[in-house]
Amino acid sequence: MHFAIGDFVIDLIQNSVEASSSLIEVEIDDATNGVHVRIADNGCGMSPDEINKAFDPLKNSAAKHPGRKAGFGLPFIKQAVEQADGSFRIRSEKGKGTEVCFSFPKSSIDSPPLGNVPELFLNALNMVGPRELILRRRRSSDGLSYEVKKSELVEAVGCLTSASSLLLVKQYLASQEE
Amino acid sequence: MAKMTLDQLRALRAQKQEELETRNVEGKDIQLIVGMGTCGIAAGAKQTFDAIVAALEKHKLANKVVVRQTGCMGLCYVEPTVEVIMPDMPPVIYGKMTSDVAEELVVKHLIEHSLLDNHIFDKPAIDIAKH
After folding, report:
1. Would you state the pLDDT for residue A38?
2. DSSP character for B130?
3. How far apart (Å, rounded) are the C-alpha atoms in residues B28 and B25?
4. Residue B20 pLDDT more than 90?
5. With contact defined as beta carbons under 8 Å apart, do A128 and A20 qualify?
6. Low-confidence ranges of chain A (pLDDT < 50)
7. Do A152 and B72 count as a contact with CB atoms less than 8 A apart?
8. Do B12 and A152 touch (CB under 8 A)?
9. Neighbours of A95 (CB within 10 A)
10. Chain B contact for A109, CB < 8 A?
11. Contacts of B68 (CB under 8 A, 6+ apart)
12. Could you report the per-residue pLDDT of B85-104, keeping only the tens digit for each?
């Protein structure tokens, strides 16, 4: 099982990448009452039947892994949110994309920690696939707010699979948390 | 640390490109591919990724290595996994690559050209591998 909210987020971003999305938006709002996350993509989307199957870990779509129908990303996050008495919503349209929104209340002892956001963003930016990835971060305790775009970072440092680029972006992301 | 602007990031990149030593690997690419499926994430692959990048910086190999992520390779029972593709070495998938083993991977495999025997796990599961 995942430890931090960031672990669930990177898992869901991976889903968006595997859905052949060219644009993925991620919003992480560390608010006073809870952590609110939104992940939206313009990938292949799912039909209502496919959405239902996506929540059954042993009856997943075979599109991602032919021959292996196990998929735990969405079942994990739904279970964790329900355990913490949070909220979860998914909207998807075949051929248009998918949006997943979930919240963990700060008041629940079962809500996992947010985790290291710059590390999460670095992992997401390293994923090959989407032409554009927009990452938005807010934290109400100190008014922190910033947005990072993959296209701008690629223009600044080059390919984000190069370890040297990753090191520079890691430093840049860490500075945005100040 | 003050918040960095994109202009400052560009300037830092230009500066680093002058400072970085280049190791002679005959101009060929080294690829490290970290498994980042649900199983990998649950086993600590994010920390492994971070430790690998840090080790590459420490040993001045950052400008010679490509670090990528992939989904589940069917080796869920030995996650985190790291596939290493390197000239003059056999392609290898290492398992149980927790963050504390990352530097050993960089030193032994990439620099000393020697395999980490206790971590070798052949190839991806047959239904995952692309034929």
Report:
1. 98
2. -
3. 6
4. no
5. no
6. none
7. no
8. no
9. 10
10. no
11. A126, A128, A161, B31, B32, B33, B34
12. 998 888 899 999 999 999 99
pTM: 0.86
What is the gyration radius of the CA atoms in chain B, in angstroms?
16
Contacts of A67 in chain B (CB under 8 A): 127
Closest chain A residue by Cα to residue B60: A164
pLDDT in tens, B36-90: 888 899 999 999 999 999 999 999 998 889 999 988 878 889 999 999 999 888 8
Residue A116 to residue B46: CA distance in whole angstroms: 10
Enumerate residues 41 to 100 of chain A having a beta carbon within 8 A of any beta carbon in chain B.
64-68, 71-73, 76
Question: What per-residue confidence (pLDDT) applies to A62?
Answer: 55
Structural domains of chain B, ranges and CATH numbers in brackets = 27-122 (3.40.30.10)
Q: Report ipTM (2 d.p.).
A: 0.77
Report in angstroms the alpha-carbon separations of A43 from A27, A56, A130, A132.
Answer: 17, 21, 10, 12
Q: How many CB pairs under 8 A join A and B?
A: 116
Partners of B85 in beta bridges: B31
Place of tokens 């799912």: A46
Q: Tell me what pLDDT residue B27 has.
A: 47
Q: Where does residue A57 rank: exposed (0-12), middle (13-18), buried (19+ CB within 10 A)?
A: middle
**A167–B contact, CB cutoff 8 A:** yes
Please give the Cα distance from A72 to A56 (Å, whole number).
8
Taking CB atoms and an 8 Å limit, are A152 and B6 in contact across chains?
A: yes
pLDDT on residue B24: 36
CA of A72: how far to CAs of A46, B39, B42, in Å? Answer: 16, 8, 11
Please give the residue of chain A at the shortest CA–CA distance from B17: A164
Nearest chain A CA: its distance from B15 CA (Å): 11
Closest CA to B71 of A177, A57, A68: A68
